[in-house]
Each structure stands twice: as structure tokens, then as C-alpha cells.
Amino acid sequence: MTRTGRQMRSTIREDGTLTLSLEEVAVGDPGDDEVIVRVEAAPLNPSDIGLLLGPADVSTLVETGGAGTPSLTLTVPEARLPGIRGRLGQSLPVGNEGAGTMVAAGREARALEGRRVGMFGGAMYADYRRIRAQDVMPLPDGASAMDGASMFVNPLTALGFVETARREGHKAIVHTAAASNLGQMLQKICLADGIPLVNIVRSPAQAGILLAIGATHVLDSTEPGFADRLADAIEATGATIAFDATGGGTLGSDILQAMERVALRGMTAYSRYGSDVFKQLYVYGSLAAGPTMLDRAGFGSQWSVSGWLLFPFLRKAGPDIEARLRRRVADELTTTFASHYTRVIGLAEALKPDVLRAYERKATGEKFLIDPTRG
Amino acid sequence: MTRTGRQMRSTIREDGTLTLSLEEVAVGDPGDDEVIVRVEAAPLNPSDIGLLLGPADVSTLVETGGAGTPSLTLTVPEARLPGIRGRLGQSLPVGNEGAGTMVAAGREARALEGRRVGMFGGAMYADYRRIRAQDVMPLPDGASAMDGASMFVNPLTALGFVETARREGHKAIVHTAAASNLGQMLQKICLADGIPLVNIVRSPAQAGILLAIGATHVLDSTEPGFADRLADAIEATGATIAFDATGGGTLGSDILQAMERVALRGMTAYSRYGSDVFKQLYVYGSLAAGPTMLDRAGFGSQWSVSGWLLFPFLRKAGPDIEARLRRRVADELTTTFASHYTRVIGLAEALKPDVLRAYERKATGEKFLIDPTRG
């Protein structure tokens, strides 16, 4: 018997036409060190949406599939094609991580058979995933697939921020879009580890989420007096590193300026080169469109703005540190690393225009989960 | 006898009024480890102009001094005052570096008496400079004060770029505003040391300056097809680090995008995270006004944009490396590190409105030298 199942695919043609579809694919038999998992939960992270939709213009969305074979078409503006030349013409599976139940196992992976596991490695928006046993993690007893669906990207990213801050000698952290699932995890880690965290959000509701889990410093960037309150929070905590999910606009620049303002308060003599305090901004997301605008006039001379992504971080950190971080995630899966979803959808549902438009907005506090067993 | 002399001062009051003046100050007797140098040449570097004029609006310039006591007044827009709060109300001497003849020496510095020296440490726009003996460098026989006037900032910066590139594992360099005195030094060092250099200029005349000293890669950013030619030069050299004097605008972003484009050419499989190649942009100047605009969409995930300044670099590099770099400057003072000036002015002349407007433009290829002995 050949097992087959649906798999979500994203393809961009040379002319900029992006097609989303569900393909019926053969799962294949597991190799000796492989397992087959029935996918029961897979989150829609911003990075997944990035691969799914590329730089397409969502206003061009049209439904092109028939009944039972959902398919959507969007257009990528020509100016954005050079940046994605490498994927043109390729039918790409989507979905970084997920969880489900093991339904078959190769010779060397029998011990895991029947277990519920979390897993990581792409192509998770599918009925089944054939995967190497070393890329799955058995869930603790009693944990649901939903509990294990997001046990890699957000948890390891939040832990990676703290690890990065420590390794680079910073004693407190600033975080933006801080009420996200990731932001809540970061706040819990910082509370447990005694690292002061300055949370920046954009609404009272978001502030409430963080205050409820014990946050001390929560600033709403839409309120008057934000710049002064940010500087005060930075002074109170000693934060010299920031992780920014927004990317576009001036928020990152505002944070570096606030850090420098605080550093200058501590100086006795004027130096036209600014303070000696090194300030690091890591950009790890693009929630805000447009270029990053750096008003360097207020930075002093000791600053750096860099990209931060999980995979390069883990590669640099090495397998020992990755193993330590993964153990912590497993140990605290339903506490520190609990994720919250506002909507659970089926695979076919994810390709309905109104549903796609809803998760594409990436609103903080909203999070979608795909459960392929729902159809 | 008390020796006195003129000293140029820049003062910004709390209300944003900037005053430039020449003060008659007592030079004082040299301490045991000090010397007194009659200043005969001091360059107007962009960093000097930055201290002299602060963030003042040059269009507000008015002459306020009487005959024999030149004085100018400018206004700093209120929005720019927070960034310079530390200097408000202070009368600051100006001029990072210079050269001249030693006219007095303390007990421990007699060996230098009568020698012509280069020196570094501020307050050089003056008739005399009292300074620690360790902060002066005797000039080679036959070298003029003009030869020694710029033996610190530009030479050590150019050497610092190469040192930074090597220490951070880059094998070729991109440089902007590359026809400057600094840029010419960098090209000569790179030729001598076998490091490929991609020069970016803004006119055929500037390109000519670099080609005449042996540059291979000279690109005019105002010409059509610049982006493609930049990528080709980056591919030919393998450059993954850039030093940018312009700061404002998109040029730095364009360079990072070109580096990533080249890195992607070498990849066989598509990755939404871009290439594995780490790309570093250092911003060391602000020749172009406005914020640095980073279009991260084309950067991949491995990039960093940082401030670069000589003094923090030297502090991090340590005294051994600084001594090695200084020795090279002394050895190659009239060859690799020869500076060219387009105009020599007196101290009082530097405070004439039309002269100030001319050096404030910081046009590449134009360079002013102050010789206080001219009056």
C-alpha cells in the first residue's frame, strides 16, 4: 500500500504569478532512521507566511481552484522578482514546524512508534511528514499536538535572544512587538533568569497581556511621551541590546537613540564621538513594511544593527548549546513555552481568500494553527 | 615672559546660538613631559568641521566680530539641540591634528627641541599647542609641516580599515567617496598589501584620481548600470566588507544588496533566509545628510551595519597595533600617506563667511589647510 496525502505548495513563475495549491503526493516508506508522522497541528509563523506568499501583492489574490482542489493565485510585482530569483519555477512545500502522531517508523526508530511528537524541518502543511527520527522530539505525557506544534521556532528564538545577549555582554534587553507568543516566552524566560526586559507594544490590550504574566517594563509606543519613558526604562534596566520584530521605519533607531541618551547622562565630559557604551540592535522580523531608517546623529559611534535569525544563530552556537536549549523547551513546554492560538483551520481552509487575508495581517495577539485532520 | 597666542573656539549656547571666535590664551610653561609647538599646518577634516559647526544651519551664518577680532554666529535648529546637550555652554577648542616646530620643551622632552613634529589631540587651530611629548611624532628629515599635518587621522583610519577587514576575515573591501585623501591612501595600502579594493566615486574626475594611482575597480555611482557593475566588481574581488563615508541615503544598502546578490549567484538551492555569506557595512562619515535607509529585503539574514571611528578602533586594537600602524605612517609619510590640499588659509581667514562656506561643503577632492603663521 502506498500512503499518499495532501501537501501545500507555493510556486512563483518567472512572470511573477504565485500559485498556492494542495498537491496529492506519495509519502513513501520510512528509511531505517526515518519516521512518518500524521500532522495534527502546525502554526502559521511569520516566516512561514513569508515563504508561502513571497513578496506577492495580496490585493491581487484570486481563487483559481475548483471544488475539492483549492488553489489561489497572486501576483508578485516585477520590481520584487530579483530578490527571489532563486525560487522561481520551484514548487516549494511550506510549514517550518508542527506536531502529530507517529504512524510508521524505520528499523532504527521503532522506539518512537505511536508516540506524539513535535518536529521541525519544513513541509509541515501536509497530511503526513516523512522525517528523520533525530528531527522529532517526543512530547511529554499528556501534551497535545497543539501543545507541541510550536516547540521549535518561537521557544528557541526566545532562548536564542537571551543566549545572544549574555554572550555579547549585555545585562538587559529591549523587545518590540513584545506581546506576541514569542514575546511572552521571552518575558517568562527573563523573569526566571533574572534578566530585566523592556517590552514595547502598540496597544493597552497588548500591555495587559504582558503585565498579566509579571512584566515590569511595558511601554506603549503609540502613547505620548514614549521616547522619554523608553529612555527611563533603559536607564532603570541598563539595557544595551534590542531585538526588533518590526524592521521597517524608525522604531529601532529610536531605541538606539534612547540608549545613547541614557549613556550620555552618565558622562562627565563632552565627547563629540558620543558615549563609550556599545549598543546593539538586532532586526529579526519585518512586521512593519519599508526600509529601516537609522537616524545615526543620536547613536554616538558605538553601535551596530544586524540581522538575527534562528538558524544562523544555532549554527554558530553549536550542537551542545542547541541541545541544552531544546531540553529546556521540552521541560517547560506547557508553562514557559505555551503558545496560544486564536483560530484553528484545516489545510484546505488555509487556502480560502478571507482566511488567508486574516493570517497575512500578522496582527499581534492573533495566531493561526493548521490542523490537517480537519480537512 | 608668558607666551600667549590665538586659539579658535566654538561655543553653542542653550538657545542654539553657535559662536566661532579666536581667543587670546596663555600657552603656559611646558610640564616636565610636555613640549610647546608653534602650529604651522592643521587640516580641516570632516570631523573637525563637525565639532566646529555642530549641527548648525549654515544658511544662518552672520559675521559678528569687529576688525582684528573675527567672530561668526550661526543658529542650531531647536530639534537638533538634544543630540549635543553635552557641549552646550562650553567654549571648545578645535582641530584634531596638526604639525609645527617645537619652540620649548620640558625637562624630560629636551631631545625633541627644535624638531618639526606632527601631533594629535585637539586644539590645533591655534598659534601654539602645549602637548605631552608622547603625543607628538618627529617628522622625517626634509618633511614640511604640511607633509606632517595629516599624519594621524586619515593614515590611521585607512590602515584601520585594512586591519579591521583582515581581523574580521574579509578578503576584499568596498569604499565610498573613494577619491578623498583618505581614499587615495586606502588604495595605495591595498595595492601594497595585495587587497582588492572596489572604489565608488561620483564623477569621472574623481575616478581619474584613483585610476592614476593604480586602482583597478573604480565605479561612478551616478552612471547608469551602476548596480550591475557594482555586483560584478564585488564578484570579481570577493568583497564582503564596505566602509561608507556618506552615511545618509541608500548607498550602503545598495552595497549590501549587491554583495548578497553575488552570494546568491553561488548557491545551488533556494533558501528563503538568503546566503550564508556575512556582509558588514561600516559607516564612518556623514557626507550625505539624512538617515541611513536600509532596504533589508535584499540583504539575506547575514549582515551588520555598524559605526566605525578611529578612536574606538585604536582602543580596541591596543597599543602594540597602534605603534605598528604609526611606524608605517612615519615610514611612508611622503608616499602612501601624502595628503593634498587645495587651499591654505590663515586662522582668521578660516572665520570669513565665504571661506567657511567653501570648506563646509566637504567636496571630494577639495581640502583646506590652516596655517596660523599666515595670520
UniProtKB/TrEMBL annotation, chains A, B:
InterPro entries: ER, GroES-like_sf, NAD(P)-bd_dom_sf
The keyword NADP appears for this protein: yes
Bilayer-crossing regions: none
Keyword Transferase carried by entry: no
Record domain Enoyl reductase (ER): where: 16-370
UniProt keywords, alphabetically: NADP, Oxidoreductase
Gene3D superfamilies xrefs: Medium-chain alcohol dehydrogenases, catalytic domain (3.90.180.10), NAD(P)-binding Rossmann-like Domain (3.40.50.720)
The protein, known as: NADPH:quinone reductase-like Zn-dependent oxidoreductase
Origin species: Labrys monachus
Organism ancestry: Bacteria, Pseudomonadati, Pseudomonadota, Alphaproteobacteria, Hyphomicrobiales
